[in-house]
Amino acid sequence: MEEPLMHFATGSDKIIITNIYSSNERSDVMKNFLSKVFTKKGKIQIEFCQNNLDRFLDEQTVADYGKFLANPRIQYKEYECLSECKLCKQTPYAKVNGQIMNAKDSRNLLNQLYDELK
């Protein structure tokens, strides 16, 4: 976006500076302003243990997890191990924004992850 043209208008002892934008530039400026004023929900950071995924994720839910993780609000990483070995052997889990979230099966964990997006 090019720099807007500046319009100088002299008043009594003041100089009034106004920006003159094209309609597209004005629209972009307004969108940027509104997006800052009405903040969107933040990103969710999720960490997965690869060992846990291998243990509890089945073929049926792999595609569903892939669809979920494609959401632009989701930032995720898979680690070989998250050092939660006792939990890892018992139940599917993930660290969501640093907090452990677990469920009885991978489908329920995915449902809980979707709830975090709301």
Automatic annotation (TrEMBL):
Pfam families: DUF1450 (PF07293). InterPro entries: DUF1450. This is DUF1450 domain-containing protein. It comes from Peribacillus simplex.
